[in-house]
TrEMBL record:
Enzyme class label: isomerase
Taxonomy, superkingdom: Bacteria
Positions contributing to substrate binding: S7, H65, G141, F142, G143, G144, D174, G175, G176, G196, S197
Name of this chain's protein: Ribulose-phosphate 3-epimerase
Any one Pfam family match given in the protein's UniProt record, by short name: Ribul_P_3_epim
Amino acid sequence: MVKIAPSILSADFSQLGKHVKRLEQGGADLLHIDVMDGNFVPNISLGFPVIKSIRGLTKLDFDVHLMIAEPSKYIDEFVKAGADFITVHYEAETHLDRTINYIKGLGVKAGVALNPATPVSQLKYILPSLDMVLIMSVNPGFGGQKYIGYSTEKIRELKTLIDELGCNTLIEVDGGIDKSNIKTIKEAGADIIVAGSAVFKDDEIEKNITQLKGAI
Ligand code: DX5
Ligand code: ZN
């Protein structure tokens, strides 16, 4: 069963607590939290205090997507803030193997995100160590962008590689996903679908989640 991970980047931050509760009640499977530093990506979003402030409001797993330079410096703080999954970008981490092992050593699930232009083959050796690979289907930094078509081929390629290696790494896909393309993305091999604007559209969180699940 494919899981839906709403991205709180598209929430109304003045209503964040209420929105988190509505997401849980509306059928979200995990909460996708986009952290941006204004350096790795050209946008700044949120950090530790915000994550801590919502941790007590929901039982949903926190899926923390770090779009930050030198993520290894901040792993301890994200674990303390309540992360259940921590995903670092391939393009932002020089010592990926070390950082992944560090995250897992803290008892948290570890993921690697790939920018659209980064080939899946870069992960060949590290894949069995990963709990998740995040295929970015837009250039990271902003919600509400258009799905990049070749991402579907990357999902298929990753799925084939995972099956060949016999590992149980999850495939997450993030960016530009709505009810028009979610089925194709699932059929390509996605296990977790991130959706921001499609979930928060018209402030109809519950209806939008139901429609996304219905479209699969
Ligand atoms: C983009 C973020 C995404 C984004 C998804 O950098 O990683 O999680 O918020 O938003 P939509 O679904 O609107 O593309
Ligand atoms: Zn994200």
